[in-house]
Design a protein that fits this description.
Layout: E1 5-6, H1 7-10, E2 16-21, E3 23-27, E4 30-34, E5 37-38, E6 52-54, E7 57-65, E8 68-73, E9 80-86, H2 88-112, E10 116-120, E11 127-131, H3 138-153, E12 158-163, E13 181-186, E14 190-193, E15 208-216, E16 219-226, H4 227-247, H5 255-290, E17 293-295, E18 298-306, H6 310-321, E19 326-333, E20 337-344, H7 352-360, E21 366-369, E22 373-379, H8 390-396
Helix pairs in contact: 2-3, 5-6
Bound molecules: zinc ion.
Zinc ion binds near residues 102, 184, 194 and 198.
Amino acid sequence: MTMTKKLYFDDPMQSEFTAEVIEIRKHALGFGVILPSTFFYPTGGGQSHDTGILGPARVVDVIIEGEEIIHILDKEIDLGSYPAKIDWERRFANMQHHTGQHIFSSAFWTELGLETISSHISGEAPTTIDFNKGTLSTEEIARVEKAANKMVFENREIKAYFVENKESVPFRRPPKVDGEIRVIEIEGYDYSACGGTHLPQTGMVGMLKIVRTERINQKTRIHFVAGWQALAYFDETQKAAQESAQLLAIGIDALKETVGNQQEQLKSAQNELKKLREMKLEIEASKMAQLAEAVDDKWLATSLFENRNAGELRSLAMKLRAYPGMVTVLASFDGSKLSLITACADDTNVNANDLLQKHLAPFEGRGGGDSSIAQGGGTAKNVDELFQHTKEMVRSS
Ligand SMILES: [Zn+2]
């Protein structure tokens, strides 16, 4: 068991070094190598591991087991010295978000008295922090964002050091463990116990922006972006706004008002359309009623439509049902699927469900309803004989 020296503690800005592979280890995650000291950060403390290159191999994972750091490589290599390089974009994004997390946690504490419960740092997706409060107002979020960005723009120094006695440091959240503790101090603002990698100056974090809040049971989770990711987020949001404005042939500043107005117009147009559709169905029903065939003391209206919407078919049947003595059988066929609806006026003594079942029987179709209206369907090759026996069915019921 090697006690790996954590060089990233002393210099988190170092990305290249000479790696001495002193031991090779078959690990469940892959081919592992051990170095006496490393700048590669292993997953821990809410921050994910570094990736990079180690000689001819890629470092795909870095884990810490006890005091030993294991570098998982994508291929086997021999013992010896190799040039090593950390994927800096990934590490830097992790540091911007990790340092941003300290800044936000400090700002939430000083501005709103909210304690950080947990956090998950990501350089790719927004980083999250959980707080012990159910909801946050827009004003509270704005206040915290302002305080956090002030800490950034003041470009405060960030120090990392070890202390033996935790009582000697005014921690925001005192660590539970005793013994040697690593302190991350944002000059004049914040003291936390942490084993992650942080930037040496708050200014390097860049802009901090909360992009989403969500409530999880009694907690609030914030999602934030920092630095490069904040720029990417701004870019994306701006592009979406620009493209939307272009579609409407207006400027971005008129977007909110225009979309609001269009929504109103759309709503009233939809209402109008609904009314017109109703009217059209009324007219259609009335025409069908006029053309209905007399069967004894009843009237029979049948119609086969090509691929007609089921809801519309039902509405039409309901309207026909309002005509005294009217028995209605409507069908829609798309070449393979048959939909059927039957409706019987109250004074007909014809059972709509019986009528439906009789019509569905040759197609092994399924469906149901009550005596006044019933609906079903099945599959069919052709429906040429669909209404062949309808008249007898009505007569015999
Ligand atoms: Zn930290």
